C-alpha cells in the first residue's frame, strides 16, 4: 500500500488529503479483482465435458471481457468469439465464457489472451479445430500518447481444421 502512496506522490498529489487517503486500499482491492484469474486454472472450467455426436461448428460469440494491459496497467476490453469443431467432446457454453474470464483477469497482452483461450480448448476438448477472434479497445491507446480512441485491435488464434480449410474459417467469420 505504501507503493501506491508513493505513486500518488510521484504523480504530484498528496496521499494524505481527504479524497486520496483511502485510495491505496481501494486500489489494492480493485487490482485483486482485476487479477482474479491468477487464483484459478481457467482450463478447469472446460473439464466438464459431454459426449455428443455433433461434428459441426460450435461458436460462442460476443463474450464480453475486461482485462488489464501488462505494459501500462490500463484496461483493455471488448468481445471474444470462440469457436470449435468438436471431435467427441463438447463443454457447456457458459464454461467457455468463464475460461475467457479466467485468462482475461490477469496482466495481459491481447495476443497472449487470444492464444491462451484457444490452447485451453485445444488441450481439454481435443476438437478438430479451434478459432478465437478478439476485438478490443485499449485505454492505453485512447488516453495517452497517440490518442486514437476509436481504434480497435483484432487478434486471431487458429488451430487444426481451421488452419488448412479456408471454408471453415469463412463459415466462422460469416457468423460474426
Ligand atoms: Zn498498454
Kindly summarize this structure in a few lines.
This protein has eight helices and seven strands. With about 180 residues, it is α+β, with helices and mostly antiparallel strands. The protein has a five-stranded mixed β-sheet with strand order 5-2-3-6-7. The protein has a two-stranded antiparallel ribbon with strand order 1-4.
Number of helices: 8
**SSE series:** HHHEEEEHEHEHEHH
Query: How many β strands by DSSP?
Result: 7
**Average pLDDT rating:** 94
Radius of gyration: 19 Å
Helical content band? 40-55%
CATH class of the largest domain equals: Alpha Beta
Pairing-aware structural class of the strands and helices?
Answer: alpha+beta
Order of adjacent strands in the largest pleated sheet: 5-2-3-6-7
Distance between the termini: 43 Å
Determine the CATH superfamily of the largest domain.
GTP cyclohydrolase I, C-terminal domain/NADPH-dependent 7-cyano-7-deazaguanine reductase, N-terminal domain
- Strand coverage percent: 25-35%
Which fold name is given in CATH as the topology of the largest domain? Answer: GTP Cyclohydrolase I, domain 2
The hetero compounds bound to this protein are: zinc ion
What can you tell me about this protein's structure?
The chain has 176 residues and is of the alpha+beta class. Helix 1 (2-11) crosses helix 3 (23-34) and helix 4 packs across helix 5. The chain has a five-stranded mixed β-sheet with strand order 5-2-3-6-7. It has a two-stranded antiparallel sheet with strand order 1-4. The protein has two domains: 2-33, no CATH class; 42-174, GTP cyclohydrolase I, C-terminal domain/NADPH-dependent 7-cyano-7-deazaguanine reductase, N-terminal domain (GTP Cyclohydrolase I, domain 2, 2-Layer Sandwich). A hairpin with a 5-residue loop joins strand 2 (58-69) and strand 3 (75-85). 40% of the residues lie in helices and 28% in strands. The protein starts with a helix and ends with a helix. The protein has helices at 2-11, 18-21, 23-34, 93-104, 110-125, 139-142, 161-164, 166-174, and strands at residues 49-51, 58-69, 75-85, 89-91, 107-108, 129-138, 153-160. The structure holds zinc ion. Zinc ion binds next to loops. It catalyses: GTP + H2O = 7,8-dihydroneopterin 3'-triphosphate + formate + H(+). It is an enzyme of class 3 (hydrolase). Residues 3-175 form the GTP cyclohydrolase I domain. It holds the Pfam family GTP_cyclohydroI. Pathway: Cofactor biosynthesis; 7,8-dihydroneopterin triphosphate biosynthesis; 7,8-dihydroneopterin triphosphate from GTP: step 1/1.
